[in-house]
Structures are given as structure tokens and as C-alpha cells.
Amino acid sequence: MRILVINGPNLNILGRRDKEVYTEKTLAEIESLLKSQGEALDVEVITFQSNSEGELIDFIQEQSNSADGIIINPGALTHYSFSLHDALVDVRLPIIEVHLSNIYSREGWRANSVIAPIVKGQISGLGWRGYVAALQTLIDELSGGNWK
After folding, report:
1. Cβ neighbours of residue 78 under 8 Å, at least 6 residues apart?
2. Does 22 qualify as catalytic in the annotation?
């Protein structure tokens, strides 16, 4: 099993960025944790981060043919990137959207996700633990579990 973990703009500066809103962990620490958990379950976790919308789309298009599922934190692209939305629709894979902060308890514009309508589920506000929950949920579903 192969799962892509994709992170959008500004997530490369986790650990330095407003730690009370996001996390004290760096993106490298979160990715390492996910890869270790994946290895323990015989799952390959491929991570990617970019501040560029086009690079994210290119990665999705290049890697999705050999993937079984996607975990994505689109960052600010969550709220307006219809091209990222379309790229994710096209892959026809189960997707879980993750946000470190609770996007529904912040500024009003953050509560809108153009990605949410096309994903199996969304985890918001659990910090770095949201990625772990997403990975465990996706592995369970891909192993024959039930979303309901």
C-alpha cells in the first residue's frame, strides 16, 4: 500500500510559525512520524510539500497512478484552489483533508474549503495528531474497513 501525504503553502515553516495556532513540531518531524507508522504497518508513505500550486498539482498527477490514497493539507489553497480540487477529483483515490488548526473557529473566510466536497473526510483542529488519525483511518479503509 502506498499513501501520498501532501502539504501546501507555508507548512514548510512549521515549528517556527505561530506555534499556538499550528504546532511546535516541524513538518520533517510529522513526516518522519508518519513514515515510521507506515513502515510498522507495511505501508509506504510518500511525503511532499510545496509553496507552489502548480508543483502540488504536478506531484499529484505524477504520483497518483502508483498510490492507493492521499492525505492532504492544502494550506491556504483550501479556500480557493479549484485547479487543486480538479487534480484531486481526477485521481479517483480516497482522500482525507487535514488542517492543524480548527479552520471553523478562526476567521470566517477560513471556514470555506473547496476541497472538502470531494474528500472522504476532513480532520481539523487536532494539530499534528490529525495526520496520524488520517493515516490510521485511510489504512483501515484501504484494508477493507468501512467508512461508516
Report:
1. 8, 97, 99, 103, 110, 113, 114, 115
2. yes
At 123 the three-state DSSP class reads strand
The pLDDT assigned to 3 comes to 98
Q: Identify whether 147 is part of a domain.
A: no
Q: E strands within 1-148?
A: 2-7, 44-49, 69-73, 95-99, 121-124
User: In terms of residue numbers, what domain contains 17?
Assistant: 2-142
Active site residue 131: no
What angle do the packed helices 27-40 and 129-142 form, to 10 degrees? 30
Higher pLDDT, 109 or 67: 67
Asked whether residue 123 is domain-assigned, the answer is yes
What domain count does the chain have?
1
Q: Which of 79, 80, 85, 99 is catalytic?
A: 99
